[in-house]
């Protein structure tokens, strides 16, 4: 299968995590400006304004902590989750979560500093993963941290006293994957080599636990289009986990061990193919996983 590049746009900012929001014609990036530092870039998906063109930036709060570590690593669109989040994006900044509202008509190349609201999500630990619920009517946002903690937030109203709606503690290393696979089931993965399935009605301990082959750290998880499988990319392999048979060993999608890991994976919801990208810029396509 060949992938055809339809359009490209050069920018002078290094973009990491990208978030597509077609309904508002915005593309967001957790980015690093060579002179101005970390920011959330807002790109246009409107052909008349310049497809993929950089429109403006959201800047983090002043007083950056004394560290060389990237702090603004994660971003997720929460567009339409509630009346107050019509065009909003949530970005991580160290231990904090910042909520910005994107809008049309902002002067080109502006730098906006004002977040709609922000709060400490994981005191003393960097946020390493974000996931929003895709269930209609839900305002749930899940966050994972470097210390292995998982917090669930109800964004109908700004969190009070930085208190999450739910806490889940079992991972021992940075959380790298979160996915609400149903109304009351959350899958999580971490660099400790475990994939956990949580029952949100009883979050004291995971419902099921799966270990990766060789205990390799998990880099990414992706739910299948039918909700019955979970693709799991690790430091050593690419595997498939049956959500309805969590105790079964993970099946290899690609020959194990891999010459190099896949840094990102995503399913095509139309063809059900799995796209897997490596750090060297190559992309592989896997078909018929289930």
Key phrases:
24 strands; 5-stranded mixed β-sheet; 45% strand; 290 residues; 2 domains; Methylamine Dehydrogenase, Chain H; mainly beta
Textual characterization of the structure:
The chain has 290 residues and is mainly β. The chain is built from no helices and 24 strands. The chain has 2 domains: 159 residues, YVTN repeat-like/Quinoprotein amine dehydrogenase (Methylamine Dehydrogenase, Chain H, 7 Propeller), CATH 2.130.10.10; 114 residues, YVTN repeat-like/Quinoprotein amine dehydrogenase (Methylamine Dehydrogenase, Chain H, 7 Propeller). The strands form 6 sheets. The chain has a 5-stranded mixed beta sheet, with no helix packed on it. A 4-stranded antiparallel beta sheet has the order 5-6-7-9, with no helix packed on it. The two termini are 19 Å apart. The model has no long low-confidence stretch (mean pLDDT 90).
